Amino acid sequence: MKRFVLLLLVLSIVVPSLMFGKDMLVRVYVPSYKDLLPIKHKALRYAGVRPGEYYDLILTEQEYYSDLVPSGLPNDVILYDLDNAPEATRGSYHSYAEMKTIMQNMASNYPSICKFDSIGQTYLGETVYCVKISDDPGTEDPSEPDVLIMGVHHSREWAAAEVPLFIADSLTRAYSSNSTIKAVVDSREIWVVPVVNVDGYNYDYPGQHYWRKNRQPYGGATGTDPNRTYNGSCNWDRFGDWGVIPSGGSVTHYPSSDVFCGPYGTGPEGNSAPCDRNIENLVKTHEFNFSVSFHSYSELVLWPWGYTTSNPPNSSAIVSYGNTTASMIHRLGSGYYTPEQSSDLYPTSGDSDGWILGWYHYVNGTNCVPFTHELGTSFYQPASDLDYICTENFKGVFYMIQQAADIRTNLNAEVPSPTIAPMDTSTTGNYTVVWAPRNASINHPTKWELHELTGFSSVTDNLESGSGNWDLTG
Q1: Where are the domains of the chain?
Q2: How many Cα atoms occupy the beta-carbon half-sphere of 159 within 13 Å?
Q3: Are 340 and 10 spatial neighbours (Cβ–Cβ below 8 Å)?
């Protein structure tokens, strides 16, 4: 009995206050996500990355002591208990109600170039508000390149709302005094959606719960990851589909996980998250040529693909744009943002950038260059850093807004399948085939190949006639 008591005392000294349910923020000093594979028994929750130096992970205490410590990987615990972490200065961030008022005032103060609008509802019935900035914001001008600026797919990434608001405010305020900004606004249609995941943001602000997902329940848990539920790469590569889990990837089908990709939904795209469906509908009804999604943290500029190291279409141009953008954005310390393909950071599927690139290029026959900016050095960035982060990221985004016309005109797109008009039912042997190309002025089809099939017949199976036709053990 004495040995048993002594053992308990030793354990209490080595592992104080062992509360396996608490989340910790741990910095692991490895250069690549591949070095984390020894501790990976399920999808890791990445918080931030400094490429080539370290990965910040969110781990439960049980995962830390049973997986990370035995691996021998060098690490530091940044926060022992996220639930009781020091709170950010809330007054310098805006509530969603305040953001709505800011956008309404923007449209009221600059009605000739700014329109207050919305793109849909969330699971909990909140309206997703936005502004459109252009020389005639009430009219859709198909001759002008469109730009999409998004923030807060992930609830705890508060700065990701402040940067889109800052960009919109800067464009409208400077319009009458800055000829460069005026020329861009007059020749573009710029949509700014500061908060995509309104339900999640309202839950996390101002409580600072380190919440990532939306608030849609499924499988006994709450929330799906809004940046894992988009409908894949649209390029006929099954490894790029929604729900695929790449080796070492940060995506899972466990509902309780922070990176849960959600159930396969209903409708033509299958997306189960209303906040993402709002973005998908906006994308499909506009010709965006550049999009940027703000996240935090790590001070990066990322582009597709996320699921593979293979190059995206028009990779030379995308890499050039990304490198130039990153070179314009100073880090909080020294140096500039790091540019890289998303899969170099860690593999994912179902992310917004991969879907936007794939849908435009392969399905719509046009081109959109989508970037993600990972802002700052923490989820709840100190308020004293916000002005610097906003002004630095404005420079990179404004450069890409200027490039939108070049993207529309000079990048090559896939020729999508044309829409074939319904055939007549004539039995004379003569028929006419009529089809309508999609965006032919952009993807430039030169010829079409038709296949005439004959001998059509239909067969009715009897698979539903009894349970004996089904194997229910798989």
Answers
A1: 21-84, 90-410
A2: 27
A3: no
